[in-house]
Amino acid sequence: MVMIKYKDLVPVRWLCQWSGTAKSSWYYISTDGMRGRKSSEYTLKANGETVNNKQVVEHIKDLLRDEFLCVYGYEKISWELQAEGFIINKKKVYRLMKEQHLLCPGRRIHTSGKRQFVQQRKIEASYPMQYLAMDIKYVYIQGERRHVYLLTVLDIFTKKALGHLLKSSIRQHDVVLLLDGIMQEYKTEGMIIRNDNGSQFIAHSVRNFLKSRGVNQEFTHIATPEENSYIEALHSTLEREVIRRYWFDSFYHAKMKLADYYKFYNSRRRHRSLKRKSPNQFWELYTKNLNSNLMFNQQTLLN
């Protein structure tokens, strides 16, 4: 107020010196909003139609409601919009999504409820399908210069690879589908499955599915792969015996070769811990001995 009162009586530099204010601040005019040119409120379409940005945002929200598009970031959403005739670049899509809190970090998987962490590092299994382990491994496709992901589920007692899935990305629904296929033919009540803290494994859909099947889920502690040593050993073997030996021309080449290896691993690869038998042979031996014991017990009761 003092500066305004004397602004016509003395030079501006004197007023700034008296008030301890920088001279540049005297000429500064505050403006609302972001710096730079004001953003356009409309978006064009290939057919010449003009669409309000609010309608574009609503369209983005509709895309994100799709079951498999919900994890898309701004770049892929811009591809979807462009495919539908919108003349829009990824920078504008990023701005619109950021303003509406629609970017991926704002849609990360949130979990509630206490996770059950492992109590003992070494797993002690007494029969097949008592204890399972699952994990995800990177596989590099040299011919396509990209990584894909391999999800494997292992039976601890027999070391059998119960199922695997190779995809460019592993989502929570992929984990549920693989586990559901494995568990359809087995009794799951009281089963325990161990995994790390990957977003696919802590997702509500995975945890609820396992809970509905009576399966107890254990989480390893952060940065302790030794707590899931059995499947880490399997992936290490896979790395040594397959991934380092083959140059994968394509995703389908890798998928075929890994499927062939898992068949070999289950049926023919011998393990010292399994009395030099393959996982399938050890499973059959356990089943044979179990049936023999049941027959003996029944005969004892009859006599």
Radius of gyration equals 31 Å
Describe the sheet with the most strands: 5 strands, mixed
Summarize the amount of helix as a percent range. Answer: 40-55%
Number of domains: 2
CATH topology of the largest domain: Nucleotidyltransferase, domain 5
Share in β-strands: 5-15%
Nearest-integer average pLDDT: 83
Largest sheet, order of strands side by side?
Answer: 6-5-4-7-8
State the CATH class of the largest domain: Alpha Beta
Q: Please count the beta strands (DSSP E, at least 2 residues each).
A: 8
Ranges where pLDDT stays below 50 over 5 or more residues in a row are 106-110, 298-303
Number of helices: 12
Distance between the termini: 111 Å
Shape: elongated
Describe this structure in words.
With 303 residues, the protein is an alpha/beta fold. The protein has two domains: 42-107, no CATH class; 131-287, Ribonuclease H-like superfamily/Ribonuclease H (Nucleotidyltransferase, domain 5, 2-Layer Sandwich), CATH 3.30.420.10. The chain has twelve helices and eight strands. The strands form two sheets. The chain has a five-stranded mixed beta sheet with strand order 6-5-4-7-8, with helices on both faces. A hairpin with a 4-residue loop joins strand 4 and strand 5. The longest helix has 24 residues, at 279-302. It is elongated and about 110 Å long. 22% of the residues are buried.
